[in-house]
TrEMBL record, chain B:
Family: Belongs to the GMC oxidoreductase family.
Top-level taxon: Bacteria
This protein's name: GMC family oxidoreductase
Keyword field contains Oxidoreductase: yes
Gene3D superfamilies for the chain: FAD/NAD(P)-binding domain
Domain Glucose-methanol-choline oxidoreductase N-terminal: 128-306
KW Transmembrane helix (keyword) present: no
Amino acid sequence: MSNTSSRPPMRVIEKRVTLSRRGFLKGGGMAALGVGALSTATLMMPADEALAANFKVLGAANGKTLLQLARDIFPHDRISDRYYLQALEPLEAQAAQDDKLKALLTEGVAALDRLAKLRFKKAYTELPKESDRLSLLYVIEHGAFFQKVKGHLVTGFYDNKAVWPLFGYEGSSWEKGGYINRGFDDIDWLDNDA
Amino acid sequence: MKAKFSLDDDGVVVIIGSGAGGGTLADELTQRGVNVVILEAGKHYTQADFENDEWAMFKKISWLDKRISAGGWHHTETYPNLPAWIVKGVGGSTMHFSGLALRFLPHDFKTRSTYGEVKGANVIDWPISYDELAPYYDIAERKMGVAGTKASGLPEMPPNNHYKVIAAGAKKVGYKDISRPVASNTRPNDGRPACQQIGFCMQGCKIGAKWSTLYSEIPRAIETGRAELRPQSMVLRIEHDKSGKVSGVLYADKDGRQHLQKARVVCVAGNSIESPRLLLNSASSLFPNGLANSSGQVGKNYMNHTTAAAVAIHKGPVYMYRGFDIAAVISDEAQLNPDRGFLGGYHLEGLALHLPFTAAFMKPGGWGREVTSALEQYDHMSCVWVCGEDMPQEENGITLHPTEKDQYGLPIPIVTKTDHTNDAAMRRHGLAAWRKVSEAVGATRVIDMPPYPASHNMGTNRMSANARDGVLNKWGQTHDIKNLFVSDGSQFTSSSAANPTLTIVALAVRQAEYIAGAMQRREI
């Protein structure tokens, strides 16, 4: 399928992060995003533990569960945990101001773990199989805790400018002169079919 | 030369609302030498306030005062306090307006004579015909700069990727009526620049290429020295004298202070929820059921179009967000064809959603890999909005909450909507048609979305030939009170399948001519 036109190829967005984790930390990415600065000790921990340590209000154990829950609600395998942390961070900040929300979240995590132990004799985050974890979420999906976390993530996760490039979405364009000279009409695969 | 009118000036026309109806009316009346005071509930945003950011703009400009969704529609669950997605600000919903400027079809003005009696619906003919409105459609297309129309003389909007993928599929399945009449400059026009394919047309056009009364009609009216704009002025009630003529308007300013602006004529243009709400809230001993409500039709027959939406995932990238948000519009199905199993018709309107709104509206309440596997293909998506005729039903409408009040102390509005059986059949047909169009160019997955909150609100103060059937005569003048007019989409007797803005503007131009003439003749 050769493209016979002389037009330049379509301007395609690579849906990748080009920054390594190390580079991200070194560049102060977290701090810039309003997440607390990482201590040297946290740098030694495995990635998810290090991230969970950022939950100062709800605590690292609750944080770890919420991170797993967020990933199970909107699973994007190519997207790293730190974006899920960024998504949850405003929720934690709200919980710091709102005791009812804090209770909803901590009690929700506790109830989820109780359910997990009842069924699988392990905490939710200790269940390696996604299908086991999902079987628990189908039980709680209509409850206030799940609804709150999920509702928050719709904007918390997808309205985060840092994840947009991973979906091939470019965000604000007016300051770049729109797309009039940046591929608004450069589709190149249609002629072969249409 | 900014005008300033005294509260006691009873020679002015007070216009309530500054959107497509109110803004146009202000422009057209001042050009004819009439003095107007524009009362706008919202703030005066400018283009400097506009961001290319869906949620930021939603939060900034939407009408978010509490409303309740009631009735049988899905909004009671999915959007319980957001029955409609409209704007509170100078320029009203023309800021959020997609730009799509379709005309009604001739039969839309004669639905009762065309359809006959429709079971469960309250269908009547308009008191005006397409031919009577046609010259005003020309004026409206010129004022708004609708691309690709004879009246405006502006070239067509150049096709973007999203347009091309939809148009190619449409042609493959045999559709012929594919167009894109959008009110956005395709070359510099009317003091505004040409479209730069920025996208975010519904978030307020950052460069003002897309028409909005905010920077077209309103400044033009003010420049005449005959218009005063008062933003953040929420109208609480319309007052009348002993004879039953309206005499002024009571409103609250941004600090909650109340003022009574006297008026010779009052024109209500607050959109189809606020306008009937205001008439109902203005009940008095002389008009116990609300102003202009001898028919009992104020607030009834609420229509918001039969809508549905869907995304299609294509085998190559589309980047639907690049360029003007409205893509190809397929109008073949807007024609009458009862063989399809429903009355009326619909347009298939390509409409780009950016990633944040796609995530929010694709499967409201959804989660898991069903959702995320689709969103990971966001760059390959095309998106449609099905816009179809909605039948007027008397029980669909705007009522006042018996106890709950808003920040102004006014009863909050309840918006009741239950689908007509015609709607379900049309929605099914529209989604199936979109699937065919998408699959014709090799789409691998098509996902039907539930309707998201519509911006089209119509019918709650409708026009009728007989005073017993509706609220307004053919000029948008209330049957009951000579110097009280309605100038927004609540005038509509039927909804048609066309987006309402162009028709609101055409009616406002025509109404302004009538009001100016009637004032000169001392009839009002």
